[in-house]
């Protein structure tokens, strides 16, 4: 694999945002970003950024759109699509 792996770039992105006090994520939002990045990293087998294209991203979005609603999995009717109350 040539180039920066997705997982490394995602960690660096989160760290960079957290350094900017005007853009800093809340812990809840940070956790949501980290979860999404972990899922995508697993989906693309931690491909390099150079190897990730619109097709891979589109296929990932298609795949996760088929997942059951997280709230249904935990029995919480009031959670949003990410399982956050």
Describe this structure in words.
By secondary structure, the chain is mostly helical. The chain has one domain (6-74). Helices cover 56% and strands 0% of the residues. Helix 1 packs antiparallel against helix 2 (27-43). It starts with 5 loop residues before the first helix and ends in an 11-residue tail after the last helix.
Number of domains: 1
User: What is the percent of helical residues?
Assistant: 55-70%
Shape: flat
Rg, rounded, reads 15 Å
Structural class by SSE content: mainly alpha
Order of helices and strands: HHHH
- Percent of residues in beta strands? under 5%
- Uncertain segments: 73-85
Tell me the major beta sheet: none
Number of helices: 4
List the main descriptive attributes of the protein structure presented here.
85 residues, mainly alpha, 4 helices, 0% strand, disordered C terminus
Question: What are the SSEs and their pairings?
Answer:
Layout: H1 6-19, H2 27-43, H3 54-65, H4 70-74
Structure, briefly:
The protein is mostly helical. The protein has four helices and no strands.
